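[audit] Reproducing an earlier prediction to check determinism. Same input, same settings, fresh worker. If the tokens differ from the archived copy the diff job will pick it up downstream; this log only records the rerun itself.
[audit] input (150 residues):
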Amino acid sequence: MRDDALMEELATALRAADPVPPGLVEMGQAIYTWRLVDAELAELSPVGTAGPLVRADEVAALRDLAFQTESGLVIELGVSGDALLGQLDPPAEGEVRVVTGAGPGPGLPVDEVGGFRISPIPPGRFRLHFRGGGRNVVTTPIYWGGTHDE
């Protein structure tokens, strides 16, 4: 069989195939999150000295959120304007991705001193996934439902 005839036969078979059921597409997207199964979990932890709690209508100040892994990596986060600013301690170069229910976003750079910027801040619930410096870390869920004006 010639290549042209084979390609035509394959194209005909593809046109005749049923569309992928929506539920199957969702399951396929959910499987993609299994990339994070081997990631170390960074849990929300207290920052600095105990102070007044942040009310639901207030916004946390820069470096007021921190996540820590059992191996000692600390991920500090803060809000500045429409951006989420972060710092890894100890510093490590790599990339960070925002992971939402729709899956992971594009990789954003984490510089050599462990700093990164995510803009705009993703609305709703998300996690941060870090890779670099021999680490693979995902935060517990973060919920952003507010705005912040500097």
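[audit] rerun output stored. Observation attached for the diff report: Confidence is low (pLDDT under 50) at residues 49-56.
[audit] end
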